[in-house]
Amino acid sequence: MVTIAAVQYPSVFLDIEGCLERAVELIKQAAVEGVNLLVFPEGWIPGYPLFIWGMVPSNNPGEFDQMYRRLFANSIDLSKDELAPIREAAREHGIVVVMCINERAGELSAGTLYNTAVTIDATGDILNVHRKVMPTNAERTVWGFGDGRGLNVVETAVGRVGVLLCWENFMPLARAAIYAQNVEIYCAPT
């Protein structure tokens, strides 16, 4: 039997190092409790940018820009292996992790952030990187559109895992893409 847990613990908002340290501790704790698959909430590193829903950029340009700069500076660049501590914790504790991050794109546009879910196997290997295809409403002020390359179901130590982020779970074609790949464990972090 597979034991799955959803993290219901806050990140260290806009603090990449604090988030990584806290995530490693949560992975360790989950493993002690017998969890095989641990799913973190949407945008957990360095925190979901809740400020986008209460602040109109044109009405608060200085404050919004300051928050965005902090978000950008504390987001993960996967091309620099900044998830190495999470990968090592997954490997050390033999646990599959779905880590949701604000991703700073390194390969195409160094100025774009994506709302991204990274599936890490119990070996510590990154198996899939899924960028939210259609950020919702105000999310478009901070996140770019994903391109669909990550609409994959991957074979993990716990079975075939697929991930869609938040509102994507209401999109029939996104779900169809996951269903068509014989998903066994469907993760829907929000």
UniProtKB/TrEMBL annotation:
PANTHER family: CN HYDROLASE DOMAIN-CONTAINING PROTEIN, NITRILASE. GO terms for molecular function: nitrilase activity. Transmembrane segments: none annotated. InterPro entries: C-N_Hydrolase, C-N_Hydrolase_sf, Nitrilase/CN_hydratase_CS, Nitrilases_CHs. It comes from marine sediment metagenome. Belongs to the carbon-nitrogen hydrolase superfamily. Nitrilase family. This is CN hydrolase domain-containing protein. SUPFAM superfamilies: Carbon-nitrogen hydrolase. Pfam families: CN_hydrolase (PF00795). Residues 2-190 form the CN hydrolase domain.
